[in-house]
Design brief:
Elements (H helix, E strand, L loop, with lengths): L8 H6 L2 E8 L12 E11 L5 E4 L2 H12 L3 H5 L2
Antiparallel strand pairs: 1-2, 2-3
Length: 80
């Protein structure tokens, strides 16, 4: 995790999710021999509460994808 951000639930549901590739560089010597890798994950772009557009991918993208699969709408999630 690089930082903690706050996003509106409605914005997360409104954002388009797509499968995109991201360049990943191993951070430890154990995996350094594998070199850089392309990693495909659910990816979405959403503005945080400060109106800065953020790209969520990797674990964050997967979590949002699973959230949206489990709760198909923001109303299902919040009850409002």
């Amino acid at each position: 995790m690089s930082e903690l951000i706050y996003v509106r639930v409605g914005d997360v549901y409104a954002a388009k999710v797509s499968a995109e590739y991201h360049l990943v560089r191993p951070a430890d010597r154990l995996h350094a021999y594998e070199g850089d890798m392309l990693f495909q994950s659910p990816t979405l772009r959403v503005a945080d509460t400060q109106e800065v557009v953020r790209v969520l991918w990797g674990v964050a993208g997967h979590m949002v994808s699973e959230l949206r699969r489990t709760f198909p709408s923001a109303t299902d999630l919040t009850g409002r």
